[in-house]
Structures are given as structure tokens and as C-alpha cells.
Design a protein that fits this description.
The protein is of the alpha/beta class. The protein contains 18 helices and 25 strands. It has two domains: 387 residues, ANL, N-terminal domain (Rossmann fold, 3-Layer(aba) Sandwich); 97 residues, GMP Synthetase, Chain A, domain 3 (2-Layer Sandwich), CATH 3.30.300.30. The strands form six sheets. A nine-stranded mixed β-sheet has the order 2-1-10-9-11-12-13-14-15, sandwiched between helices. Strands 16, 17, 18, 19 and 20 form a five-stranded antiparallel β-sheet that branches. The radius of gyration is 23 Å and the shape is globular. The protein starts with a helix and ends with a helix.
């Protein structure tokens, strides 16, 4: 059950369709893409002496060869370790060592910066002449067949607490996840395109799969990274465009579009996830970019596949609970079961807050070489996500916060997300994030870190009065810290651990 079979099928169905493009220019057809994959898989087997089950790391910005390497590794029965190119060298080396990767593919811009002193793995520069030579062969190996539970994708968590953990994603997990996209998120035709503006090492890379299933075109921005103006330009060049974007990326595209006023005719779907999208932000995005949005909620342990808020719901402004649904992350996708459990581990009633649990054939089975963390996170067949939320009577899940972000003040639970949603409706607030600070009197007090729009004269008294009009007095921030920006990781998530450190 090798996931690379989807590429073989696409090649057989539409060999002459464009498979991969760089910027506005086609690069590979499915015929040339498949041949390049076969050539590299053969090289991996014979010249690099890699055996079935070995791990192959990729550390590079988005690059056309990223896709070639992934499918070549799977074709040869190997496992892929995607590593975000923006991580610190210490983090990269930890992942290389922990995963036991034998080979690491990099682009030239990282070759000297990151790996000049590394002897952990064999490093191959995909921009070098030697790499081009090894991918030009006259004959190739046959695809290696693997079991459905064979490791395909060893994804390392962001590691906001302790060392990152390697999530073991199997061939079956990936296949079910790709089919779940086509069932729950969006349909794709062979005339469509996906612009990989977000990192291929994360969610955007997972959405490569359903597009190959439909023989669609995958577009790599020439810059290799997210640039809102570049993305808006690429929408002019392709049809049926889909993108996966973090909420912070959506905001930046909205801001650019308000200035540039580009044609959006080629844009079909924006899937957003990976962090909280505040109601005010998605409303602004709908106003500027139109009814093109789908929200997904997932984790590395259940990649992109826990819940979905489809276009139909997001665009149904006449529904009596429209605001509440827009603030939710939608309903369980068809590939999983989702439950809410209380502190005793019992199912929570609708409207009652508890931890989000997930199970299904798309959910990973554990962490690489970490039995303790695996046993803590997977219990009785359920993945314990660490996220806190509740179901409404229609099955819509609203996330409140991560369990570790809960603030307990004066014996009462305070969920930062609720306060942040209120602050984001203030006309002068650009970004906001709330954390708890130790208090002798209350146990914890709420501190709001706020980024104001330029030239705003809003102060703490204004925001305090604003919150008092909208939420209970005990929930309002006790302190406000005005900052130029919020610290974020490479996927756009606000680093609340860093914010807490600023309080000490």
C-alpha cells in the first residue's frame, strides 16, 4: 500500500498534464515528473545505498525538487522527515539525529549556513550539478510495496515545550487523509492548481496528495516562501487556485489585496487552519477575498483531519447562529470520531467544556522512539489532543484554548481565546494574545499583549472599558503590555511560552 501509487495512476491517466510549476511557468508534466521520481528512487537505492525503512530528511524552502524527493523516497520504500528550513541549526540537528536520517536534501541557500560543520548525515544540495546528474538515468527500479502501517512521514511537532516529538504518519494515514480532503474539504479537477505558499514541510505539503490524485497542477512560488504580493500575482496566472494558509498569512493577503486590488477570478478556495482565526479577521477576509474560505482543524498527530467548517456554512450569513458557527472549527470530518471528555474521562454533555479526543484510521499511532509520550497522549484508542472545547447541539466544535494556556484566577477558569476575540473587535487592535501571570492574591492574573494599529492613541484604560462592556469583570485583563509584534513560530502560531517568559 505505497502512497506513491497515486502518482503512478496520475501519470497513466494524464501524462501530458502539467504536474509541477515554478512561479508562472510549467516545469514538469506528469510524465516527466514520474520519470524524475523513478530516477531518484533508483539512485537512492543503489548509489546512496538506502534500504527499505530508512529515513530521508528534507530541509529546504519550498522548491520543485521537494515534491520529487518525497515521492522518490516513498517509491523506494523509504520514510520522509520534513524539517522546516527556518528552524535553528540546533533544532535541525536534533531532528536529524533523533530520526536517524541517513541522507538530508537541502537547497544551495542552506548548504553553507546550516550544514558546513555537520557530520550527522550525507548532505545533498538539490541545486548542484551532481544532483542533476543522479536524477538522469535510463532505467529504474520497480516501486517497492510496503504494508499500510509502514512509516511514510515522520513529522516533528513544533516543540514549544521540551524537545519536539516525531509523529509517525503511515502510508494508510496519508491515503485516508488525502481522500478525506476530497470528501470533506473541497473537490479538485485536473484543471485546478494549488499554490504552495505555506511550507511544504507542514500542512501545504499534506495537500499535495489530493491534488496529485486529481492530476492537478502544483505551483511553487519562485521565492520559495510566502509573499502576499507574489501570491496575488500567481492567482492571475493559474485557474482553480487553492491555497492552505495560516491565519496570519490570510491577514497579510487581505491587507495586500486592499492595496493592490488584483483580480481574484482564478482563486477558488482558501483553506485556513493551524491557529485561531478570530471572527473579526475571517469577516474581513470574506469581505475582501469573497466566499472562498474553508476552515480545517487538525494536529500533527491527526494531520489536517479533525474537523472542517465548509464554505456552505461560512457563507450562510442568514443562519440564526452564524456568528457562533463562524467562531467554531466546524464538524468532525468523515475519517474520524471526535469526542469531548471531562477531567474524569467521561463524555461531556453538549455545551460543556472538556478535552478534545480523536480516533480514526487517519490518526497517527504514536511518537518515534518515545513510549512515555505515546502512552500519555494515546489512551484506549483515542488521541488526547490537549485542546479544550465544547460541542453545540448541532455537532459544531468550538475550541477554547490549549489546556496548558488555561488561566485560573480566583478559582475561576479563564480561557484566553474568549478575551482575545473581544480585543480583536476593537478598531485599533491589530493583534492580541493573553497569558496568565502569577499573583499572590488571585493565583494568576490575565495579561494582554496587544499590537495596536499605527498612529493609534488607544491606551490601557480604553481597552479596559471596552472589555468591561463585553465580558465578565473577572475575565478582563488586569494588565496590558503594548508591543510592536507578537512572537510566532515558523508556522505563524503565537508563542505564548515566549510571552510568559517576558513576564518573569
Amino acid at each position: 500500500m505505497n502512497i506513491a501509487h497515486i502518482l503512478l495512476k496520475a501519470y497513466r491517466l494524464h501524462p501530458d498534464r502539467t504536474a509541477v510549476s515554478i512561479g508562472s511557468k510549467p516545469l514538469y508534466t506528469y510524465r516527466s515528473f514520474y520519470k524524475r521520481v523513478c530516477d531518484l528512487a533508483t539512485c537512492m537505492t543503489f548509489e546512496l545505498s538506502l534500504s527499505v525503512g530508512d529515513r530521508v530528511a528534507i530541509v529546504m524552502p519550498n522548491h520543485p525538487e521537494y515534491l520529487v524527493i518525497r515521492y522518490a523516497a516513498w517509491y523506494a520504500g523509504l520514510s520522509v522527515v520534513p524539517i522546516n528550513a527556518k528552524l535553528h541549526v540546533r533544532e535541525i540537528n536534533y531532528m536529524l539525529k533523533h530520526s536517524g536520517s541517513k541522507v538530508c536534501f537541502v537547497s544551495s541557500r542552506l548548504q553553507n549556513e546550516v550544514f558546513k560543520n555537520s557530520d550527522l548525515v550525507e548532505v545533498i544540495d538539490v541545486d548542484s550539478a551532481s544532483y542533476q546528474n543522479i536524477t538522469n538515468r535510463d532505467s529504474g527500479i520497480e516501486m517497492v510495496e510496503v504494508e499500510r502501517d509502514a512509516l511514510a512521514w515522520l513529522f516533528y511537532t513544533s516543540g514549544t515545550t521540551g524537545n519536539p516529538k516525531g509523529v509517525m504518519i503511515t502510508h494508510e494515514n496519508m491515503l485516508v487523509g488525502a481522500m478525506s480532503y476530497l470528501v470533506d474539504v473541497d473537490d479538485i479537477s485536473s484543471e485546478d492548481s494549488i499554490i504552495h505558499a505555506a511550507p511544504l514541510s507542514h500542512g501545504s505539503g499534506f495537500y499535495d496528495l489530493p491534488h496529485v490524485m486529481r492530476c492537478a497542477n502544483q505551483v511553487i512560488p519562485a521565492s520559495g516562501q510566502f509573499n502576499s504580493s507574489e501570491v496575488l500575482g500567481l492567482i492571475q496566472d493559474w485557474t482553480g487556485v487553492t491555497m492552505f494558509l495560516a491565519p496570519t498569512m490570510v491577514k497579510r493577503i487581505v491587507q495586500s489585496q486592499e492595496t493592490i486590488q488584483s483580480s481574484l477570478q482564478g482563486l477558488k478556495t482558501v483553506v485556513y487552519g493551524g491557529g485561531p482565526m478570530y471572527v473579526q479577521d475571517i469577516k474581513s477576509a470574506l469581505d475582501v477575498l469573497g466566499p472562498r474560505f474553508v476552515q480545517i482543524y487538525g494536529q500533527g498527530e491527526s494531520p489536517m483531519t479533525i474537523t472542517v467548517l465548509p464554505k456552505k456554512v461560512i457563507n450562510d450569513v442568514t443562519h440564526q447562529r452564524y456568528e457562533q458557527r463562524l467562531a467554531s472549527v466546524g464538524m468532525a470530518q468523515n475519517s474520524v470520531s471526535v469526542a469531548i471528555c471531562n477531567n474524569e474521562g467521561s463524555p461531556a454533555a453538549n455545551g460543556t467544556i472538556g478535552e478534545v479526543l480523536v480516533k480514526g484510521s487517519v490518526v497517527a499511532s504514536g511518537y518515534w522512539q518515545d513510549e512515555v509520550a505515546t502512552k500519555t497522549t494515546w489512551k484506549d484508542g483515542w488521541l488526547h489532543t490537549g485542546d479544550i472545547g465544547f460541542f453545540d447541539d448541532d455537532g459544531f466544535l468550538t475550541l477554547i484554548d490549549r489546556s496548558k494556556d488555561l488561566i485560573i484566577s480566583g478559582g475561576s477558569n479563564i480561557y484566553p481565546r474568549e478575551i482575545e476575540e473581544v480585543l480583536m473587535t476593537h478598531p485599533s487592535v491589530h493583534e492580541a494574545a493573553c497569558v496568565g501571570q502569577f499573583s499572590d492574591e488571585w493565583g494568576e492574573s490575565v495579561v494582554a499583549f496587544v499590537v495596536l494599529d499605527s498612529e493609534s492613541s488607544t491606551d490601557a484604560r480604553d481597552l479596559d472599558a471596552f472589555c468591561l462592556d463585553r465580558i465578565a469583570r473577572f475575565k478582563r485583563p488586569k494588565y496590558y503590555r503594548f508591543v510592536d509584534s507578537l512572537p510566532k513560530n515558523n508556522y505563524g502560531k503565537v508563542l505564548k511560552t515566549t510571552l510568559r517568559q517576558l513576564l518573569t
